């Protein structure tokens, strides 16, 4: 069995810094270890559901992982719910500024202005509106399950934070949770309520000092909870096998999948 995880930075940041995807204490690896499976993690800093959908459409490494995925975990959508008074593109373009000293100054200015604007705007708008988050999640689900129709899908609902960068506020979270939960119920996706698992850890200051990312105890709890949703209460057809009573879908190209979605 192979577990495909699409994630934001919560999937590869620990209590101090980012880690390689094979770090065994990260929640995707914990989930894989609990299930006795390998884990393919594709993630990025600040990834929203839109970033993940772009990766599914354009990254050949993700294509390869989808072809062998027996279960899929969508660890995305949390960033979508965070306050974003400045367009995400502003942050993403900072690294291309030259000389490097200009990029460093722009990064400091962005952090300072962002926190102030979050407070002034009372935490609105969010990085993505709930409807756009759900649209991208559905595109991902259709693309993956078209090629791997037997693969169950798990969705992590947004976490909580105490980050000064986001003004310590999170007013958009409830709307995103509601929209994502409704979408999951309508599509057979298995939702995981992350906040109850990590709230005491994060809000109590026991996680990463940035107020967003988790320490290892929270990674362990989330990974075990993900595994719990994927244990064989529902049959999973392993990679490369066929069940005469439940055949695999016809082979499709990625162009076919994009047209269908």
Condensed summary:
The chain is an alpha/beta fold and 261 residues long. It is built from 10 helices and 5 strands, in the order E-H-E-H-H-E-H-H-H-E-H-E-H-H-H.
The radius of gyration computed from the alpha-carbon positions, rounded to a whole number of angstroms, is: 19 Å
By CATH, the superfamily of the largest domain comes out as SGNH hydrolase
Number of helices: 10
Q: Quickly count the domains.
A: 2
> Any guess at the CATH architecture of the largest domain?
3-Layer(aba) Sandwich
| Broad CATH class of the largest domain | Alpha Beta
Q: What is the name of the CATH topology of the largest domain? A: Rossmann fold
Percentage of residues in DSSP E strands: 5-15%
Which sheet architecture does the biggest sheet show?
A: 5 strands, parallel
Question: How would you explain this protein's 3D organization?
Answer:
The chain has 261 residues and is α/β, with parallel strands linked by helices. The protein has two domains: 2-83 and 127-260, Rossmann fold (3-Layer(aba) Sandwich); 84-122. The chain is 46% helix and 9% strand. A five-stranded parallel β-sheet has the order 2-1-3-4-5, with helices on both faces. Strand 4 (153-156), helix 7 and strand 5 (190-192) form a beta-alpha-beta unit. Helix 1 (27-35) packs across helix 9 (216-230), helix 6 (130-147) crosses helix 10 and helix 8 packs antiparallel against helix 9 (216-230). The longest helix is centred in the middle third of the chain and has 22 residues, at 100-121. 41% of the residues are buried. InterPro entries: OctT, SGNH_hydro_sf. This is GDSL-like lipase/acylhydrolase family protein. Residues 235-261 are annotated as: Disordered.
